[in-house]
Amino acid sequence: MSARFNLYFPAGTEHVLDEAKRKIPNLSDFLIQAIRIRLNGESAESPAVLFEKKFGDFESEAYIRQIFPDRLSAEQALKNRLIELRRVNNEQFGDVCRLFAGKYPGYAKILEEL
Predict the structure, then answer these.
(1) Which whole number is the average pLDDT over 41-60?
(2) What is the CB neighbour count within 10 angstroms for residue 97?
(3) Average model confidence (pLDDT) for the chain?
(4) Distance CA 100, CA 83 (A)
């Protein structure tokens, strides 16, 4: 039994359909990804954008030390954000971890615990 459904793309995204037509052999993978993006209500984001959304409010390690009363609570807060990010965006988590280690080298050991 075959099923039929309609997938609507917002105006200005006709290039998506053209890309799908070029990738006919992989059309099912393309549609699966498009459906996931559509159901999530968001577009695929780069690791840098994900990192900025999750850690943009922490400007530097010095700023983190000012906000939290001790290192343990800072590590726990950072770890919680990383865990949530891994749960939601597991595919891009490795790249986000590299960005995290680069910006906050003093807290990079948290990544070993995850």
Answers:
(1) 78
(2) 19
(3) 79
(4) 13
Band (pLDDT 50/70/90 cuts) for residue 5 is low
Closest CA to 54 of 2, 113, 99, 102: 99
Residue 71's pLDDT is: 92
Distance CA 70, CA 52 (A): 24
6 has a pLDDT exceeding 70: no
Which amino acid is it at 64? I
> In whole angstroms, what is the distance from residue 20 CA to residue 31 CA?
8
Dist CA 47 CA 109 (whole Å): 20
Q: Which residues of 23-42 are buried (b: 16+ CB within 10 A; e: fewer)?
A: eeeeeeebeeebeeeeeeee
**Position 19 pLDDT exceeds 80:** no
The runs of H, that is alpha helices, within the chain are 14-22, 27-40, 47-55, 61-67, 71-88, 93-103, 109-113
- Tell me the CA distances in angstroms from 98 to 21, 28, 50, 77, 112, one per residue in order: 35, 31, 12, 18, 12
